[in-house]
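Repro:
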Amino acid sequence: DIDLQDVASSALLSQLKKHNAHHGCAVVMEVETGDIRAIANLEQSSDGSYHETYNYAIGESTEPGSTFKLPALMAALEDGVIDTGDIVDTGTGTVKFYNKVIRDTREEGYGRLTVKEVFEKSSNVGTSKIIWQHYKDNPRDWVNRLYAMKLNEKLDIQIMGEGTPLIRYPGDKLWSGLSLPMMSHGYEVQMTPLQILTFYNAVANNGRMVKPRFVTAIMRNGNTIRRYEPDVIINSIASRSTINKAKKMMEGVVEHGTAINLKNSNYKIAGKTGTAQIAKGKSGYLSGSRVSYQASFVA
């Protein structure tokens, strides 16, 4: 859709310029069909201008950060170990697992929050506490639930070069005592923007996960040689009850959470913000004295 493509590209460009970002992408997916109506990828050149160079949306598998809190908490909702009104004490905004301190962005912390508020305010402390409390003795239950929602599988899309998702399994070589709390808020996992979007699209589609579709038909000399129908990956990623709670939590993010700047009187938005520190290989997340961030929004 040329109009949507134009809007997506220009919106992406203005955000990249505003933050002097190295690269970014924007994708618009139609809920029921999975049709990709717009996809824009821009990278900064040495002279500061932006160009299409690489399809980051499809090819770049990174730690998603807080957008992963939706599947993390949906797994616990689906297992029935939490409900959205349950209270979590996030204290003064830090929690320690072994030698690792997990922090919230608000320095003084948020104190007591409901599970829904943990999601709305994107509390790393709250999310990691929830998942740790309920799954530390059997982390396989939680990871199995993520696998059942197809988060560990490639989408097998119509374009080459799709990045491989990574969701470790308890007992894997790099699994540690920190894996559960870190994975809960989007670290030690890797997904592409399109894979994250496909999961959120399934929530919007009442649980039905459809494969992103770039090509609907192949034509030669005006005749249709082949049609591609919408491709359902899984009929339901979760129960209707869990899906409805997920939608309400995402609406709360825009109504009174981390994306309140997007709230408007014309229409409701359901979404989730994400911020992840970018790993720099052996040096961890620091590059000199600077930490680079990857920011995202799925809605």
